[in-house]
Amino acid sequence: LLTLCVLVTFFLLLSCNNEKKETPHETRIERTNNAVKHASKTADEILAQEKAWAAALIAGNLDTVADLNTVASIMHRDFRLKGYIGDQLPISKDMYLGMKGMSATLAEVTSVKIVEEMGSIAVARVTWTMDWARDGVKLPPYWDMIDTWIKREDGTWQVLSRISQPADKPYNAHQ
């Protein structure tokens, strides 16, 4: 499974440098009469998981058992988060769930774009806008992430890996 994740990430990195035209499945968060427009079932399902994660961050700032359970259920048991600091070691599921001092007043998923889908594995580019802090220190508000998702036998998606970096400005559909 880890080998598959590494392979998917490798192909994702190659595709980022490729000049070919793509038509990936994308979910843009556009509100029209309180309706959200989507482009694929996988994007819809992953968007639902991302929104649940964002809601859990706001609801209890990961300090209550219910919110930790929500986030934990979205993460695969082998989850790894690689941050934007080059020498930072990956963060495991247990390490993420054990973080203290996080607070958020805004966590909004601004886009989900399915970059690659291979049966029960999907690679997505996800963007968030946040107002959050760790131990009282404000963190960057805009985030761009590459996630590898795995579909469980029960049909729900779990995130296996997340590569995360701050963005200079909010997501623009034409980027």
- Approximately how much helix is present in the residues? 25-40%
Strand segment count: 10
In the predicted model, the low-confidence regions spanning at least 5 consecutive residues are: 10-24, 27-38
Could you say which overall geometry the principal axes of the C-alpha atoms support?
globular
What is the helix tally? 4
Element order: H for helix, E for strand: HEEEHHEEHEEEEE
Radius of gyration over C-alpha positions, nearest whole angstrom: 16 Å
Terminal Cα span? 32 Å
List the helices and strands and how they pair.
Elements: H1 2-17, E1 25-28, E2 31-32, E3 35-36, H2 41-60, H3 65-74, E4 75-82, E5 91-92, H4 93-97, E6 102-118, E7 121-134, E8 137-138, E9 142-151, E10 157-166
Parallel strand pairs: 4-10
Antiparallel strand pairs: 1-6, 2-3, 4-5, 6-7, 7-8, 7-9, 9-10
Helix pairs in contact: 2-3
Give a description of the structure.
This protein is α+β, with helices and mostly antiparallel strands and 175 residues long. 29% of the residues lie in helices and 41% in strands. The protein contains four helices and ten strands. It has helices at residues 2-17, 41-60, 65-74, 93-97, and strands at 25-28, 31-32, 35-36, 75-82, 91-92, 102-118, 121-134, 137-138, 142-151, 157-166. The strands form two sheets. Strands 1, 4, 5, 6, 7, 8, 9 and 10 form an eight-stranded mixed sheet that branches. It has a two-stranded antiparallel ribbon with strand order 2-3. A hairpin with a 2-residue loop joins strand 7 and strand 8. The longest helix has 20 residues, at 41-60. The relative contact order is 0.18.
